[in-house]
Design brief:
431 residues, mainly alpha, 16 helices, 0% strand, globular, O-antigen/teichoic acid export membrane protein, transmembrane helix
Length: 431
């Protein structure tokens, strides 16, 4: 029996490795893994040049940016992959870019008028001047989303991979170089913003012509697109915004309830623990998205593809995340310096949540393809409330940052399990 099974497994493995899907995944992984590997390689230098307080201020800025980013283009960039005709996809790009410009301008005007008040509300008064860079960073990040989705639609995974590696090297090298002379939070924030601008500049070389005929513009109007892809702004946007808030909350609340240094420890811990998701999980999701969309167009079931992808990622992440659970503080102290040992203690709890998050990209993409963003939104709203409660409870009742992080991590673990379950259950109910 085993003798018959082994040749079949070998044959299946060869077919799998020769498939276009696996090749595309490997290309995307090479780019994202290379870019993230460079970030990890530079991090021990960055943590020895910049203090936890400085890293915490950068983390707070990035947290605010991540909260605003889902609003930038109404999450419509994710829909660029879906239309069958390139003409419709280009029209979607035009709509996304206009929405991004409008929101960036709105944020700039709001900050100009209520700069001090907003800084006080967010307990960001020590670095309030940095807030004015938010609309600039948001503009570049929004345009980047649009251009990246177009290249994904075209299957230009190699270009995305090469550009990601180059951008990562320049940004991280600049942080180290500048840190030798000006180790300030403003230095990190400016470099982060310019790095995104450089990414946009490189990607824009491969964008399609945004000029369409008058007939094409009339046939594919903005109102028609908003109506056809209304699931994205109505459900996907609030869902992503809520998810961004829940992810960014620890940085902002830890800074407000404890200190910027605590926020800095969490920022490093979250960055390191999210590395596998950035290196592999997102690349897998970007490749699975068009694959799932094609299956849906052809009327085939998505269930097997979702389950196989999720289980494969869970198996792949079991060992590295397990090591952090056991030896987190020691590893962080050796790698980043003794002042970062507390970040390793946080990582022990974060590893449980991030392991499942690492495995959920196929499910996240399936939720969009199956148009069940409304149920995902409900999950996000419920778990967001629970996450806030866990953080406040840990801070106010137990006066312990680790209790706050533990509660937040366990609720986040539950959130990801619910999203995976939603995708599988929905795909089974549909032909």
């Amino acid at each position: 029996m085993m003798r018959r099974a082994i040749p079949k497994l070998n044959s299946a493995a060869r077919q799998l490795m020769s498939s276009t899907l696996i090749k595309s995944i490997l290309i995307m992984v090479s780019g994202t893994a290379g870019a993230q590997a460079l970030t990890i390689a530079f991090t021990p230098l960055v943590t020895r040049l910049y203090s936890p307080e400085t890293i915490g201020e950068l983390g707070a800025f990035v947290a605010l940016l991540n909260v605003l980013l889902p609003l930038a283009a109404l999450t419509l960039p994710a829909a660029i992959v879906l239309p069958r005709r390139d003409e419709t996809a280009v029209r979607l790009m035009q709509l996304c870019l206009r929405a991004t410009y409008a929101l960036a301008l709105t944020v700039f005007i709001t900050l100009a008028l209520f700069h001090s008040a907003i800084a006080n509300i967010l307990n960001f008064s020590s670095a309030s001047g940095y807030l004015m860079l938010l609309p600039v960073a948001m503009l570049f990040a929004g345009v980047y989303q649009v251009l990246q989705q177009w290249l994904i639609r075209q299957g230009e995974f190699k270009r995305i991979a090469r550009i990601a590696i180059l951008q990562s090297f320049l940004v991280n090298g600049s942080k180290v170089g500048a840190g030798l002379f000006v180790p300030l939070a403003l230095t990190l924030i400016v470099i982060q913003t310019l790095g995104q601008a450089f990414f946009v500049l490189l990607l824009s070389r491969y964008r399609p012509s945004l000029k369409l005929s008058e007939k094409a513009r009339l046939n594919v109007g903005f109102k028609l697109l908003l109506r056809k892809f209304r699931q994205f702004p109505l459900f996907q946007m609030p869902q992503q915004a809520l998810n961004a808030v829940s992810i960014s909350l620890p940085v902002l609340l830890l800074s407000a309830l404890f200190s910027p240094a605590v926020a800095g420890w969490y920022t490093l811990s979250r960055t390191i623990m999210s590395a596998p998701s950035v290196m592999l999980g997102r690349a897998v999701g970007d490749v699975y998205y068009p694959k799932l969309a094609k299956l849906q167009h052809s009327g085939k079931s998505l269930t097997a593809t979702i389950i196989k992808g999720t289980l494969a990622l869970l198996a792949l992440g079991a060992v590295p995340f397990g090591i952090v659970v056991v030896w987190g503080p020691e590893l962080f102290s050796i790698a980043f310096g003794k002042q970062w040992q507390t970040a390793g203690e946080m990582a022990q709890w974060l590893a449980l949540w991030v392991w499942v998050m690492f495995a959920n990209p196929p499910a996240l993409k399936a939720v969009m393809v199956l148009h069940v963003q409304h149920w995902a939104l409900v999950i996000n709203m419920v778990t967001l409330t629970m996450r806030i409660g866990a953080l406040v409870l840990g801070a106010e009742i137990y006066d312990s940052m680790l209790v706050a992080i533990a509660g937040y991590s366990l609720v986040s673990l539950l959130h990801n399990l619910l999203i995976i379950s939603l995708a599988i259950i929905t795909s089974r109910r549909r032909p």
